[in-house]
Specification:
It is a single chain. With 315 residues, the protein is α+β, with helices and mostly antiparallel strands. The chain has a domain at 203-315. The protein is built from 5 helices and 18 strands.
Length: 315
């Protein structure tokens, strides 16, 4: 006969969702206290957990969502037919607010399968990026829906929304300004949306464009192990503002598009907190070749292409 229990309590539990190849979880709930009321156990169903039903509340001592630390959180929970569903897990943190509308774990599957929806709002990128004393970067909002199995690959996608703001003043950007003759530090940008998808060991950022009056950044790449970056980007500035001893004027003309923007191909490596920038010479070569090919009948343009080849592309 079915067994009815008034309350079932689980204390100090841990739920962790980790991408294959990564050491740090993308979602981790620690110090989980689960209180289920009106629990009903059906002994005819094996294993017994699959025949258990109940509803109640949960409390979490700490949580990590996409690198954002949460001190405490709470929500609701239910168990039925082997499905453990936790809903409306909400919390506030110094860097923003976090909400998990739904985390469903299918305990009937082996390995267990899960689906999770995550939201982070009013995220302070200045704090997360290591610039706590500035308000240059605009706030961000993150949404993601992921699914997978324990120890397996994830599927799904996410969207990062950046509110308008300015690029931070940093040593790495100052070095890039010195090389390119630009003024990227504190350059303003408009609202931007960036899509990403999970890959083994991290995420892939789909092609995006960040636009402003004085800067345009187009690119795509990967973020692995929660920190290692590998991006190919094009940094664009108005031709009138680009002037540097590192590039001859004829070369800048060769990198200028039909809208009057000079586009510098750049490789971004290193880590998210300490990125390294280097001019992508292969992309410069391709741009030079395209420029020369498109203007093959114009003698002046042919001279520009040859000049770019001599300056940047000689062995």
């Amino acid at each position: 006969m079915p067994l009815e229990v008034q309350t079932l309590r689980v204390r100090d539990g841990i739920i962790s969702v980790t991408m294959p190849g990564e050491s740090e979880p993308i979602v981790e709930l620690r110090g989980l206290t689960l209180n289920l009321d009106d629990v009903r156990l059906d002994p005819n169903i094996v294993p017994p957990l699959l025949g258990a039903t109940g509803t109640g509340a949960l409390e979490i001592d700490s949580a990590t969502v996409g690198g954002m630390q949460i001190d405490s959180a709470g929500g609701t929970a239910s168990l039925a037919n082997g499905l453990m569903e936790m809903t409306e897990i909400t919390a506030a943190a110094p860097a923003g607010t976090m909400r998990i509308p739904s985390l469903v774990i299918d305990l009937a599957k082996n390995p267990a399968e899960f689906e999770v929806e995550m939201h982070a709002d009013s995220v302070n990128l200045n704090l997360l990026s290591g610039y706590p004393d500035t308000q240059t970067l605009g706030d961000a909002a993150l949404t993601a829906k992921l699914a997978g199995a324990t120890g397996g690959e994830l599927t799904g996608s996410g969207l990062l929304r950046l509110a308008q703001g300015g690029l931070p003043t940093s040593a790495s950007l100052s070095a890039l300004d010195g090389a390119l003759g630009t003024n990227l530090s504190a350059a303003r940008y408009e609202d931007t949306e960036i899509t990403f998808v999970p890959i083994p060991g991290g995420i892939r950022v789909e092609p995006f464009e960040l636009r402003g009056d004085a800067v345009r950044v187009r690119g795509d790449g990967t973020l692995l192990n929660g920190q290692d970056v590998d991006f190919r980007v094009s940094v664009g500035v108005p031709r009138a503002t680009a002037s540097t001893a590192s590039f001859a004027g004829v070369m800048l003309d060769g990198l200028t598009d039909t809208e009057g923007w000079v586009n510098f191909p750049v490789i971004v490596s290193g880590t998210a907190l300490e990125p390294n920038y280097a001019v992508d010479t292969d992309a410069v070569r391709r741009l030079a070749e395209d420029r020369a090919r498109q203007s093959a009948e114009d003698e002046a343009s042919r001279q520009i292409g040859r000049a770019i080849g001599r300056i940047c592309c000689s062995p």
